Amino acid sequence: MKPNPDHSTKPQRIRREGKLTAEEAARLRAVREEFSARPTKQQLLQSGEYAGPMSLEEYLSWRKGAGDAPLTTQLQAAIAATGQSLYSIAQASGIAAPVLQRFVNGERGITLETAGKLAEYLGLSLLPSPRS
């Protein structure tokens, strides 16, 4: 919908010249059908597929545990094993020093791109683990 030129609060409908083609009408019906079958929030809550929003405490607890991923642990151990300062590692690897500091302290995660730079500097490879 586009704004009404008379600046009223109700938007003006866009009118179409002519009728929908059979293909357009079929696509419109398919889209309406797809969205009409979506469950409501109440239905999702009752089904157990949706638990609702997390509380701040739940989020912080979840976020704290999210840093325990094997890649994170391995990178942090490799950084500690170098014996170098975080600043020198950051400078040599092209990572911002505050980002590296927060990562090592467990205050935040890093992107895959940053992990790649860090792994390259440390002489590590980022390889997926074999699936069982």
Task: Give a nutshell description of this structure.
This protein is mostly helical. It is built from 7 helices and no strands.
What report would you give on this structure?
This protein has helices at residues 22-36, 41-47, 56-66, 70-82, 86-93, 97-104, 112-122. The protein has 132 residues and is mostly helical. The chain has two domains: 18-51; 63-122. Helix 4 runs parallel beside helix 7 (112-122). It is elongated, with a radius of gyration of 26 Å. The model has no long low-confidence stretch (mean pLDDT 79).
Whole-Å distance between the termini? 51 Å
Tell how many strands the DSSP assignment holds: 0
What's the helix count? Answer: 7
Query: How would the global form be characterised?
Result: elongated
As residue ranges, the low-confidence spans are: none
The structural domain count equals 2
The largest sheet, given as strand count, sense and whether it forms a barrel, is: none
| Radius of gyration over all CA atoms, rounded | 26 Å
Helix and strand element order: HHHHHHH
Query: DSSP strand (E) fraction?
Result: under 5%
What's the average pLDDT? 79
Helix-strand makeup class: mainly alpha
* Helix fraction bin: 55-70%
